[in-house]
Design a protein that fits this description.
With 71 residues, the protein is α+β, with helices and mostly antiparallel strands. The protein has a domain of 45 residues. The protein is 35% helix and 23% strand. The radius of gyration is 13 Å and the shape is globular.
Length: 71
């Protein structure tokens, strides 16, 4: 990883996960998790759950889901 890499999950995972759990349907957190030969991707809103071939595609799909980028 890059020396400048910064992630809220690595700094305070319990606080981050608690804030996601308490939002009740908002798109506050997305997970891109390795699962065998693909990545399982999900959102805290509970409405989005997909598989991606790699981490970069999972992140792209998450950004599309939240509307932070357009297709």
């Amino acid at each position: 990883m890059d020396a400048d890499y910064d992630s809220a999950l690595e700094e305070k995972p319990l606080e981050f996960m608690a804030s996601i759990a308490n939002t009740g349907g908002s798109c506050d957190g997305q997970g891109i998790i390795p699962d065998g030969d693909h990545y399982t991707c999900w959102c805290s809103c509970g409405e989005w759950n997909v598989e991606a071939p790699d981490q970069h595609e999972g992140l792209r799909l998450a950004r599309l889901h939240t509307g932070s980028i357009a297709e």
